Amino acid sequence: MGKELNNSYQNAEEVFSIFDKKWMGLIVDVLLDGPQRYKDIAQTIPTISDRILVQRLKELTENGIVIRKVYPESPIRVEYQLTDKGIALNAILAEVHKWSEKWGD
Amino acid sequence: MGKELNNSYQNAEEVFSIFDKKWMGLIVDVLLDGPQRYKDIAQTIPTISDRILVQRLKELTENGIVIRKVYPESPIRVEYQLTDKGIALNAILAEVHKWSEKWGD
């Protein structure tokens, strides 16, 4: 087993450890519709608490999946958008949903 | 957001929480080649300890991803094989590997 293959599994485990957290998949799905302001995300997912949503967006930003864009308007506009790395997660999430629908409880 | 969609996310989080554990993806990949005896799996992944491999196979069995088949031969033969639910994970793992190769460290 080559080093490259080992790395691939390690990276895979990192992906899974991001998305086993509650709301992560849903937040990325919401952002796949395009860049959004914090309050728009919060409105789309009314059952998530502010504390958790702020924390999740921070984690996604630190993982290079989401970028926080600040537009110097008046009032200042802040939007969250997926990076290319984040948009590419779409294929994984689509397969997970297919699997869940067929095999989940 | 309907109940059905919520369930889909919850199931998705369960999938991710299975595979964020070290070796899980690799063990399933190895079993995608067909049913195998414990010692064959252990030989294919020489860096995993017996304690962890036994534990992982137990978790995969409990999750309905792997089935432990006992053949009443002499000596008794025990094989681990993926269920249909387990085989269906192939599509997810393939997308995760593609993503990791492109975007991983």
Descriptive overview:
The structure is a homodimer of 105-residue chains. The first copy, chain A, has helices at 3-19, 24-31, 38-44, 50-62, 84-87, 90-103; strands at residues 66-71, 77-82. Chain A is mainly alpha-helical. The first copy, chain A, has a two-stranded antiparallel sheet. In chain A, a hairpin with a 5-residue loop joins β1 (66-71) and β2. The mean pLDDT of chain A is 88. Chains A and B meet through α1, α2 and α6 of A and α1, α2 and α6 of B.
Topology:
The structure is a homodimer of 105-residue chains.
Chain A: H1 3-19, H2 24-31, H3 38-44, H4 50-62, E1 66-71, E2 77-82, H5 84-87, H6 90-103
Antiparallel strand pairs in A: 1-2
β-strand percent of chain A reads: 5-15%
- What best-fitting shape of chain A do the alpha-carbon axes yield? globular
Output mean pLDDT of chain A.
Answer: 88
Helix % of chain A is 55-70%
Radius of gyration of chain A, rounded? 15 Å
Largest sheet of chain A: 2 strands, antiparallel
Number of helices of chain A: 6
Strand elements of chain A, count: 2
Give the spatial strand order of the biggest sheet of chain A. Answer: 1-2
Termini Cα gap of chain A: 35 Å
Q: Give unreliable regions of chain A as ranges.
A: none
Largest interface: A-B, 41 and 41 residues
Order of helices and strands of chain A: HHHHEEHH
Structural class per helix/strand content of chain A?
mainly alpha
Kindly report the oligomeric state of this protein.
Answer: homodimer
Sum up the structure in keywords.
105 residues; mainly alpha; 2 strands; homodimer; 11% strand; two-stranded antiparallel sheet
